[in-house]
TrEMBL record, chain A:
InterPro entries for the chain: Beta-lactam/transpept, Beta-lactam/transpept-like, Beta-lactam_class-D_AS, PBP_dimer, PBP_dimer_sf, PCN-bd_Tpept, Penicillin-binding_protein_2
Entry keyword annotation includes Metal-binding: no
UniProt-annotated location(s): Cell membrane; Membrane
Membrane spanning residue stretches: 20-41
This protein's name: Beta-lactamase
Organism: Methylacidimicrobium tartarophylax
EC annotation from Swiss-Prot or TrEMBL: 3.5.2.6
The encoding gene: mrdA
Keyword line: Antibiotic resistance, Carboxypeptidase, Cell inner membrane, Cell membrane, Cell shape, Cell wall biogenesis/degradation, Hydrolase, Membrane, Peptidoglycan synthesis, Protease, Signal, Transmembrane, Transmembrane helix
UniProtKB/TrEMBL annotation, chain B:
Organism expressing this protein natively: Methylacidimicrobium tartarophylax
InterPro entries: FtsW/RodA
Lineage: Bacteria, Pseudomonadati, Verrucomicrobiota, Methylacidimicrobium
Transmembrane segment boundaries: 20-41, 53-74, 81-100, 120-136, 143-159, 165-182, 189-208, 289-309, 321-343, 355-373
Protein name: Rod shape-determining protein RodA
Keywords carried by this UniProt record: Cell shape, Membrane, Transmembrane, Transmembrane helix
Length: 683, 390
């Protein structure tokens, strides 16, 4: 029994137990409070972190839509290419099993949260090499891997496959599959890659694609695009052509292994773009044009403005830009003096006598002459104290407009231009779209130059517009510069009865199921405003040009072709010497009664319109006729790039033995040429 | 010197005095524990893990039997030989240092035939009995009372630190303090103790946390754990991995959790499989059952502790009070440190969550401890029932 004297000092045990209960409850209450903060207040933050670490979103690039000609022949589409992908994480995981050994490790420095830590990580380079070398050897592939890059890829994105080899040949892929070379983690993947089916075919129109530059452009969904259109239709229609990307959301475990697929959206094929081009006519034109070193050719439907063919020589193979053009090739293309990247169809040149068509239109429209008016046209006439020559030594005597057109008589047109007046000439030329873009700016077109008094004041304030300038303009020389496209549109208006059209290159856009998304109708631009009998007279004159005039080289039995030749003098400085670099032109239409084709050919370094451009037009028309007659068209093959050259340049002897008055007679001309030279070289 | 008083009670009397509430709460927690252990292991490929829930059920049945046996035996029989139990548990601690099995970096398991046990758990209970024994042996409530207990605490603490199992070793300090405090230690020593505790806290927070001091005698990996406690971003893929993943698991659980068997952190292995059903089971609770589930577990544990303290409150006999408070302190320390480490309140140390974590010896130890407490209730003096009743 307890003795009170022996008992320990008194205290309040129940109170102390109570204190313990309070302390315990408080501590556990603290835990609950902390739990509340963690789960309810900050819960969303942690949920996001969870999502970030357990799911990866992969973007599946959409395939680019095709570009087709008017008949549905694909000019640019996607080709499947094969590549070998390395799944680094899986290789590391399987390493011990496959090679009966520990995964080799390597000491790596990593910066983490401001501190640099030395970490032991799997030596991914050795792991990869162990598995890859036998496969690469069997496929005769060279293995070039950067260990550092590999290690970084493994550290930063172990779930994203590492691309080891791309653009594998089909033979290689077949061997890979046949010999069953793949191991888990090394696999062949298929990727769509842009392909231009016929090589250097309408390449200036189609353009090309390339990888987007650093931060250059993001897709509509904020992701980097795999490729984007660089120039031409590829660039203009990039938004339509781009396939809508799909995506996969994958659930990964703590080691990054994919355990399930949470979501999948199919990548889509982009929309198809239909061009007005007819691949068969394009082939005919390109075949015909590649005989020259530099030139352009356009075939257009005068009733709709549809560009059936547009070619420029030299050209290039856009496949060279896929997936990425090499530095070397790019330099070769850009430093080539014949400038293969330049689309000559929409570049500006001196039109020469082809411009007489416009002068005739203006003169008749504004009543400067009638169809019966005769103008005395000698070998040379004096304008403002300078002698202006015809290209014949004899002159033509008293002739009317249709005869003047037929023989391309210069002295007639000098006077005709001056009679009409520069104001009316410019008005008409402006109406016909000269000096302005035609609307195909995405082809890099030049507006050309339409000179006149106002233009002179702005560009050359020290000079004044004189009748000599007007005379020069009247034969398509001087400051005037036009593009083959502008000329073809002018001829189109003459052919179709007086309606100037906008050129049409894109017919419409359809989605991958063939449903039409957009269509672009033909669009008239202006009415020439000529009396029908006047226009008919000009047409008749143009018919005579081919039948019995300067353009006889074009003539084909059985079809009436009308047209106009032109030979514009231009000079080019090349290797320190001055050369004549004559631009030979022919613009025309056929058949005469119900025109279906307008053709324009321009050759740089030609002899003359009839001699150089004429035979090419002849060949083109022959090809088109054969196509119309029995559908026989040249087989669409892979076109190698047409090579440019400077053949046809004739050297100008430093000692000029031509009569002295000639030089001052074309003062504007001289200056024009020197300017032209500089622009041709730098441009 | 007083003899521990003994009354002989019949079995039926004992049964009539049985406090069922203690058992009901403990069983509820344990059954919930098995449910969670199943969730933490069902997706695992290893057979060992997949059997965990079943094994735990067997352990629970065994533990319940132990609970009943100890409930009906007068605890004073044990207290009388308290010094002996404590001394007997010490060689096991030596033994484990020699032939123990290493689990998670600590040599803390003894394998005897088919069963493995953690001697540290036995020592904890042994220390409670030893404390109760000394409490009734000495009249002093000053140095003479405290010094042997502190010395006796230091010995197993050092041995367990040697394993090294920081968490288990850390249980002895509050345990010793709890017994001394409730045993009637003079207030001046109590204040001294509280001051020491505050000193340690300040040292840990300012010295180790802010100034980067090393704690002498700790292994580098233990130091790393403490460092990453203060800054989990230090090495998120290394030492900070577990705490970060645990925070993500619990935090992403939100108010009501992701649902049973739907915890991705555990399923996908972000929460390491080998600890998600033992020491980090609370992370699974938090992820799958949310704040409601987590708070309920903490509240359940708290209720259990308060029931123990109610028994201590009702006991007028100091040894019984000491046993009840001692056991409660052990359980409390486990709950606080275990839950605390998963939600970044204390550094990570490997100690399990009573009744919830997988682990045979620990579950049985806990139920045995509760059995002792129940015995204190059953064998209280009849007149002490004034506060009783279920």
């Amino acid at each position: 029994m307890r003795n009170p004297l022996d008992s320990p000092p008194p205290y309040l045990p129940k109170l102390r137990v109570g204190v313990v209960a309070v302390v315990i409850s408080a501590c556990l209450g603290l835990l609950i409070a902390r739990l509340w903060v963690l789960q309810v207040i900050e819960g969303q933050t942690y949920a996001n972190r969870l999502r970030n670490q357990t799911t990866i979103a992969l973007r599946l690039d959409g395939a680019r839509g095709p570009i087709l000609d008017r008949n549905g022949i694909a000019l640019a589409e996607n080709r499947a290419t094969y590549e070998i992908d390395l799944y680094l994480d899986q290789l590391v995981r399987d390493y011990p099993k496959r090679h009966r050994g520990r995964v080799p490790r390597i000491q790596v420095e990593r910066r983490m949260g401001g501190a640099t830590l030395l970490r032991k990580e799997p030596d991914i380079y050795r792991v990869v090499m162990t598995d890859l070398i036998p496969i690469a050897n069997a496929l005769h592939l060279e293995v070039k891997l950067d260990p550092k890059e590999l290690q970084r890829h493994y550290f930063t994105s172990p779930n994203v496959p590492f691309r080891f080899a791309s653009e594998l040949s089909y033979v290689t892929v077949a061997r890979f599959a046949e010999q069953n070379l793949g191991v888990p983690g090394i696999d062949v993947a298929v990727r769509p890659v842009r392909h231009y089916n016929f090589g250097a075919f309408a390449s200036h129109i189609l353009g090309y694609v390339g990888p987007p530059g650093e931060k250059e452009r993001l897709g509509p969904d904020g992701y980097d695009l795999e490729t984007m259109g660089r120039i031409g239709v590829e660039r203009l229609m990039d938004g339509q052509l781009q396939g809508k990307p799909g995506g996969r959301i994958l659930r990964v475990n703590y080691r990054g292994y994919i355990v399930a697929e949470e979501g999948y959206t199919n990548p889509n094929l982009g929309a198809s773009v239909y061009l007005t081009l007819d691949a068969r006519i394009q082939a005919i034109v390109q075949e015909a044009l590649r005989t020259v070193g530099r030139g352009a050719a356009i075939v257009m439907d005068p009733n709709t403005g549809d560009i059936l063919s547009m070619a420029s020589v030299p050209d290039f193979d856009p496949n060279g830009f896929v997936p990425k053009i090499s530095q070397e090739d790019w330099k070769k293309l850009t430093s080539d003096p014949t400038r293969p990247l330049l689309n000559r169809s929409v570049s500006a040149y001196s039109p020469g006598s082809t411009f007489k068509v416009l002068i005739s239109l203006a003169a008749l429209k504004y009543g400067a002459i009638t169809l019966q008016t005769q103008i005395f046209s000698p070998a040379a006439i004096d304008i403002g104290g300078h002698l202006f020559h015809d290209w014949t030594k004899t002159g033509r005597g008293n002739i009317t407009l249709d005869e003047a057109l037929q023989y391309s008589c210069n002295t007639f047109f000098y006077q005709l231009g001056i009679r009409t007046g520069i104001k009316h000439l410019d008005e008409m030329a402006e109406l016909c779209g000269f000096g302005q873009p035609t609307g195909l700016s995405y082809l890099g077109e030049s507006p050309g130059i339409l000179p006149g008094p106002a233009w002179m004041k702005a560009q050359h304030p020290l000079e004044r517009w004189t009748t000599a300038h007007t005379a020069n303009l009247s034969i398509g020389q001087g400051f005037l510069e036009v593009t083959p496209l502008q000329m073809v549109l002018l001829m189109g208006a003459v052919a179709n009865g007086g309606t100037l059209l906008y050129p049409r290159l894109i017919v419409g856009v359809s989605d991958s199921q063939g449903r039409q998304l957009a269509s672009i109708p033909p669009r008239p631009r202006a009415d020439l405003g000529l009396r029908p009998q006047d226009l008919n007279a000009i047409r008749k004159g143009l018919l005579a040009v081919v039948e019995s005039g300067t353009g006889h080289s074009v003539a084909i039995p059985g079809i009436a072709i009308a047209g106009k030749t032109g030979s514009a003098q231009a000079k080019r400085r090349w290797h320190g010497k001055l050369y004549n670099d004559t631009r030979a032109w022919f613009i025309g239409f056929a058949p005469y009664e119900h025109p279906k084709y307008v053709v324009c050919v321009m050759v740089e370094g030609g002899i003359g319109g009839g001699a150089t451009a004429g035979p090419i037009v002849h060949k083109i028309m022959e090809g088109i006729l054969a196509l119309e007659r029995d559908g026989s068209a040249p087989q669409l093959v892979y076109f190698n790039p047409a090579q440019g050259n400077f053949n046809g340049l004739t050297e100008i002897q430093p000692k000029v033995d031509t009569p002295a008055p000639v030089r001052p007679s074309v003062p504007v001309h001289e200056e024009e040429d020197s300017r032209d030279n500089s622009s041709a070289d730098e441009g | 010197m007083t003899m521990v008083e003994k009354e002989r009670l019949g079995f039926l009397t004992k049964l009539a005095r049985f406090d069922w509430s203690l058992l009901v709460v403990a069983m509820a927690l344990s059954v919930f524990g098995i449910v969670v252990v199943y969730s933490a292991t069902y997706s695992s490929e290893s057979q060992d893990f997949r059997n965990a829930a079943f094994s735990q059920s067997i352990w629970l049945l065994t533990g319940t039997a132990v609970f009943f046996v100890l409930s009906f035996i007068d605890y004073r029989n044990w207290v009388k030989w308290g010094w002996l139990f404590f001394l007997l548990s010490l060689p096991a601690l030596f033994l484990v240092l020699g032939i123990g099995q290493t689990v998670n970096g600590a040599k803390s398991w003894l394998r005897i035939g088919p069963i493995s046990l953690e001697p540290a758990d036995l020592t904890k209970v042994g220390f409670v009995l030893f404390g109760a024994w000394w409490l009734v042996r000495t009249k002093s409530r000053g140095i003479v009372f405290a010094a042997p207990l502190v010395a006796a605490m230091a010995l197993p603490t050092l041995l367990i630190l040697k394993q090294p199992a920081l968490g288990s070793a850390g249980v002895f300090l509050p345990l010793c303090f709890g017994i001394l405090f409730v045993g009637g230690l003079r207030m001046r020593y109590v204040f001294l103790g509280v001051l020491c505790l505050l000193g340690v806290l300040i040292y840990a927070y300012w010295g180790v946390g802010k100034l980067g001091w090393d704690i002498p005698g700790l292994k580098p990996y233990q130091m790393n754990r403490i460092r990453t406690f203060f800054d989990p971003t230090l090495d998120p893929l290394g030492a900070g991995w577990t705490i970060n993943q645990s925070l993500i698991a619990i935090g992403s659980g939100g108010m009501s959790g992701k649902g049973y068997l739907k915890g991705t952190q555990n399923m996908l292995g972000f929460l390491p499989k080998n600890i998600s059903y033992t020491d980090f089971i609370f992370s699974v609770v938090g992820e799958e059952w949310g704040f409601l589930g987590g708070a309920a577990v903490i509240a359940g544990e708290c209720l259990l502790l308060l029931l123990c303290l109610r028994i201590a409150f009702a006991a007028r006999e100091p040894a019984g009070r000491a046993v009840a408070v001692g056991i409660a302190t052990i359980l409390f320390t486990h709950v606080f440190v275990n839950v605390g480490m998963t939600i970044k309140v204390v550094p990570i140390t490997g100690i399990p969550l009573p009744f919830i974590s997988y682990g045979g010896t620990f579950l049985i130890s806990c139920l045995a401890g509760l059995g002792l407490v129940e015995s204190v209730w059953i064998h209280r003096k009849p007149e002490e029932t004034t506060l009783g009743g279920a």
